[in-house]
From TrEMBL:
It comes from Xylanimonas oleitrophica. It holds the Pfam family ABC_tran. Signal peptide: none annotated. This is Histidinol phosphatase. The keyword Hydrolase does not apply. Residues 4-236 form the ABC transporter domain. The lineage of its organism: Bacteria, Bacillati, Actinomycetota, Actinomycetes, Micrococcales. GO terms for molecular function: ATP binding; ATP hydrolysis activity. The keyword Cell inner membrane does not apply. Keywords: ATP-binding, Nucleotide-binding, Transport. It comes from the Bacteria.
């Protein structure tokens, strides 16, 4: 069980500060939802958390160890990322894409072993893609590609998984299944989400970014409030506790008048 933390992360692109003093702590086995309007810095932060980009200032800690002190291969074994716009795979099969998740565990040119194959089979089953092994990547729908990307990350058998809006192409059933899968996985999860209702229902903890800073952090009940939705999204909303799920439920009323 592994934690993932950010300490005082600051990142500037050109002269514009994109992230400014961001702290977060995803505790072992917890699902942390990263919220915030378009351009708030979610993708930038996730790439830094995954070790794909160095922050200008601050540190990322994987179970307390600065990620920069770990070998790339060790990070790849322990942490998986599911990006929003994955690299375009052309004429490769779903099996090939999911098998890529085994790369950090194998010798460079070695074939898939029994353990690798079992991990791929389990990941396909977990994402509802059993039987899709031979389908070509280019023929998949957006939602199917998104599930295959998740399967690749699960086949990696990481301790921590970082996801950038993993539900944005999924229909409502797959959204619910994916979030329940992540929650039940026992993995430490940091995921950007746009849907406040899903985030409030499935995440243990929420961190809201606004213009590169943490505007709110804590439990869904503490974070998802009418005032927060107005302040961060400039939208009037009513937040009730759902009698059906026990989670905060947001009804959006309309754009708020900007001050
Ligand atoms: N390499 C870069 N150079 C310049 N600006 C950048 C770069 N990368 C990101 N930005 C800017 O940083 C801001 C944050 O971008 P980021 O993609 O992290 O936001 P986001 O919260 O993920 O947004 P969205 O919800 O739209 O996906 C945006 O204004 C973006 O234009």
């Amino acid at each position: 069980m592994t934690s993932l933390s950010a300490r005082d992360i600051t990142w500037t692109a050109g002269r514009a500060p994109i992230l400014d003093g961001v702290d977060l702590d995803a505790r072992p086995g917890e699902v942390l939802g990263l919220l915030g309007p378009n351009g708030a810095g979610k993708t930038s932060l996730l790439r830094i958390l995954a070790g794909l980009r160095r922050p200008g200032r601050g540190r990322v800690l994987l179970d307390g160890t600065p990620i920069g002190q770990l070998r790339r291969r060790e990070v790849a074994r322990r942490l998986a990322i599911v990006e929003q716009s994955p690299e375009a795979h052309t004429d490769v099969s779903v099996h090939d894409v999911v098998s890529l998740g085994r790369t950090p565990h194998r010798g460079t040119f070695s074939a898939l072993g029994a353990e690798d194959q079992a991990a791929v089979t389990d990941a396909l089953a977990a994402t509802g893609l059993t039987g899709w092994e031979d389908r070509l990547w280019s023929t998949l729908s957006g939602g199917e590609q998104q599930r295959a990307q998740l399967a690749r990350a699960l086949a990696q058998q990481p301790e921590v998984i970082v996801l950038d809006e993993p539900t944005n192409h999924l229909d409502v059933r797959y959204q619910l299944e994916l979030l329940a899968l992540l929650r039940g996985s026992g993995l430490t999860v940091v995921t950007a989400l746009h849907d406040l209702n899903l985030a409030a229902r499935f995440c243990d903890q929420l961190v809201v970014l606004q213009q590169g800073r943490v505007a709110a952090a804590g439990s869904p009940a503490d974070v998802v409030t009418d005032a927060l939705v107005r302040q961060v999204y400039a939208v009037e909303a009513v937040v009730d506790l759902s009698p059906h799920t026990g989670s905060p439920a947001v009804t959006f009323l309309g754009p708020a008048h900007r001050p």
